[in-house]
Write a structure and sequence with these properties.
Layout lengths: L9 H18 L10 H22 L11 H36 L5 E3 L6 E3 H16 L2 H15 L16 H43 L6 H27 L2 H16 L3
Antiparallel strand pairs: 1-2
Helix pairs in contact: 1-2, 1-3, 2-5, 3-4, 3-5, 3-6, 3-7, 3-8, 4-7, 5-8, 6-7, 6-8
Length: 269
């Protein structure tokens, strides 16, 4: 149903909703990738805003005439959409962090390529892990999960409530920002968990080489160390990526677990 732009509060509600959608598109995996043209992103912004207009207006119906586009509402609405996209970016970033740790452990940190998604130089194994995570995300409908989370945010935190407009209390922006900063620790922790098999294999390989050097001092360890370390690391990486794919298959549950503390902090007081 097309919203009536002449109803008091509807234009303001659509602007605030567009800010929330824009926050998602700014940082969400796939949607924020550099290869996606700006015209496509603008089209997605308008499309998602129109699709969510019905639920957003229904949720904000009680305080619709009181909605205002204020600086506080601008920041708060953008933060809510940013939180949804950043929650998904944390999961992809954890895979990239794992790939970076794997590269350092097996001696491939010097092999770098230009990342097609961000346009920055990155370790080859880290780039592969990132693209692998994005592929799994798309295959299990992770992009739809992000949009569903955005729709749920419209129902949980009605448009305009974030800036103190409408009925109810205002969103705690400071607590939400603190919760978003806390996701950085979750990103690194997940990355370490994903990379643990490769790091363990590299440590075991180094210990074995140290013992071999003590047993056979005449052996030139440098001719054996790098091929052995890289081979063991890549074999362990195959097992690690299999576990990563299995873990990412439950994308919806993991995203909900990441976003839960953030939206609990953003809850109106």
């Amino acid at each position: 149903m097309t919203p009536d732009l002449f109803t008091p509060g509807v234009p303001q509600a659509l602007v605030l909703l567009a800010l929330r959608v824009g926050g998602l598109l700014l940082v969400a995996p796939v949607f924020s990738a550099r290869p996606v043209p700006m015209k496509v992103r603008t089209g997605l912004l308008l499309l998602f805003t129109l699709l969510l207009a019905g639920p957003a207006l229904a949720a904000a119906r009680g305080g619709l005439p009181a909605l205002q586009v204020t600086p506080a509402a601008f920041v708060a609405e953008s933060l809510i959409g940013f939180a949804v996209g950043f929650g998904a970016a944390v999961l992809v970033g954890a895979a990239e962090t794992a790939g970076d740790l794997m590269s350092t452990s097996v001696g491939l940190a010097g092999a770098s390529l230009v990342d097609p998604l961000s346009g920055q130089s990155n370790a080859a194994l880290a780039q592969f892990a990132q693209l692998f995570a994005v592929t799994v995300l798309l295959s299990v409908g992770g992009h739809l999960v992000m949009l569903d989370a955005l729709a749920e945010s419209v129902r949980a935190v009605p448009v305009g409530l974030a800036g103190g407009g409408g009925a109810g209390g205002a969103v705690d922006v400071a607590a939400g920002l603190a919760a978003l900063l806390g996701l950085g620790g979750a990103l690194f922790a997940l990355g370490v968990k994903f990379a643990a098999p490769v790091v363990a294999a590299a440590i075991i390989g180094n210990v074995a080489l140290a013992v071999l050097t003590r047993v056979a001092p005449a052996l030139n360890v440098f001719t054996v160390a790098f091929p052995l370390q890289i081979s063991l690391g890549l074999l362990a990486a195959v097992a690690a990526f299999g576990g990563l794919a299995t873990w990412l298959a439950g994308w919806g549950g993991h995203l909900a677990g990441v976003l839960g503390p953030v939206f609990a902090a953003l809850a109106p007081r």
